[in-house]
Specification:
The chain has one domain (67-370): Farnesyl Diphosphate Synthase (Orthogonal Bundle), CATH 1.10.600. The chain has helices at 8-11, 73-90, 99-105, 107-114, 121-142, 152-160, 173-179, 184-199, 202-227, 234-243, 253-257, 263-266, 269-289, 291-295, 304-311, 316-344, 348-370. With 381 residues, the chain is an all-alpha fold. Helices cover 58% and strands 0% of the residues. It holds the Pfam family Terpene_syn_C_2.
């Protein structure tokens, strides 16, 4: 019979050696967000339970999500302090006039919400540095701060060598090494990856490099459409978003949690489906919450509501509401796939990893909903 306060999945796993407290369970995190972590199929109704603590921001009406309580403020403050010091002092990531925007990103709150089982602040910092570095590449190479589709492939290739080092001749190695200091995104990638490699196993680092290559491929597809003024079909857009998405973030959930999902288990097609669906659902959350922000920016910015409205000949409101439905379908598919895999492969590290990914999905929504500095909802209701 399950112990009080634990989900059936948690109580089915043994306590870790040296931990007599039944609340410390090898099978996954406890506390923040774990009320939404059952891997059993979810009910069809999108009505979520009330969160344990009030949060800022209005959730999107009709969106299927699971509320989480406020992240630990002590951890949030410490991660926020350390990441700003890293960005300013170690990698000189942004000029003084970007400070307000950096603070408004609230990355400390984001990462603490997404990784409640991180055993230390330094484990949280591994994820936080990578998140900030990825955002810098997106902004400076692709979008808000001087980004352009023109020449993007060359810039991304050189940035990727900060993650996946170049192995060349002695004559040319110094020039490549110097290039990693050439601009802020490359400095950030190199530094964040150096920290990650020290915390991760070789298999985890290789997994992350693979997912970052996927991300960069997605950037290039979106850039190509921008250069040719092409509005993709909805299915084409969703294909691009499977690559240009948040997948590199939940894929490191075991590294941040201080354990390893073995490579053969991570590579299973069923696990790859879970990760793809998690990345797809969380990225559509970004499309929905950033909709008004993107409409206010120069040029035409592709997101799922815009593509649906144009390709299916419906109003902006109808396109947005249809995108909410797409998100909800992806979320339910993700949860069903995770439940199926948990039943088929009830290995403790698999169960813990699945639960960590589910927490990341919930934490990602929490950050988007509560980040009123960056996001506001359209007037469609």
């Amino acid at each position: 019979m399950p112990e009080p306060g634990l989900s059936p999945l948690q109580s089915s796993l043994p306590a870790a050696a040296g931990h007599s407290d039944p609340g410390w369970i090898l099978g996954g995190p406890s506390g923040l967000g774990t009320t939404s972590l059952s891997l059993a199929p979810r009910p069809e109704t999108p009505e979520p339970p009330a969160p344990e603590a009030p949060v800022e921001g209005r959730p999107i009406p009709g969106l299927y999500f699971h509320p989480v309580p406020e992240p630990d403020p002590v951890r949030v403050d410490e991660v926020s302090r350390r990441i700003k010091s890293w960005a300013l002092d170690e990698v000189q990531l942004y000029p003084d006039d970007w400070e307000g925007e950096f603070d408004g990103f609230s990355v400390g709150r984001y990462m603490v919400a997404c990784h409640p089982d991180a055993p230390s602040i330094e484990h949280l910092m591994v994820a936080t540095r990578l998140m900030v570095a990825e955002n810098a590449v997106d902004d400076c190479y692709c979008e808000d701060h001087g980004g352009s589709p023109i020449g993007l492939g060359g810039r991304l290739l050189l940035a990727h060598t900060a993650l996946d080092p170049l192995h060349t001749t002695g004559e040319y190695q110094p020039a490549w090494a110097e290039s990693l200091r050439a601009d802020a995104p490359r400095r950030a990638y190199r530094s964040a990856m150096d920290y990650f490699v020290r915390q991760s196993t070789p298999s985890q680092a290789d997994r992350f490099r693979h997912d970052m290559a996927r991300l960069h491929l997605g950037y290039l597809a979106e850039a190509a459409w921008s250069e040719t003024d092409h509005v993709p079909e909805v299915w084409e857009y969703l294909a691009m978003r499977q690559f240009n998405n948040f997948r590199p973030c939940p894929t490191i959930t075991d590294t941040v949690g201080g354990y390893e999902l073995p490579a053969d288990l991570h590579a299973r097609p069923a696990m790859q489906r879970v990760l793809a669906l998690a990345g797809n659902a969380t990225t559509i959350v970004n499309d929905l919450y950033s909709y008004t922000k993107e409409l206010a920016s120069p040029g035409k910015h592709l997101n799922l509501p815009v593509v649906i409205a144009e390709r299916e000949g419906v109003s902006d409101k109808e396109g947005y509401l249809k995108a909410v439905e797409v998100h909800n379908d992806l979320m339910r598919d993700f949860e069903a796939a995770a439940a199926d895999l948990a039943a088929a492969c009830p290995v403790p590290t698999v169960l813990r990893f699945l639960r960590g990914v589910a927490v990341w999905v919930d934490g990602n929504h929490y950050w988007h909903q509560t980040n009123t500095y960056r996001y506001s909802l359209p007037d469609f209701w």
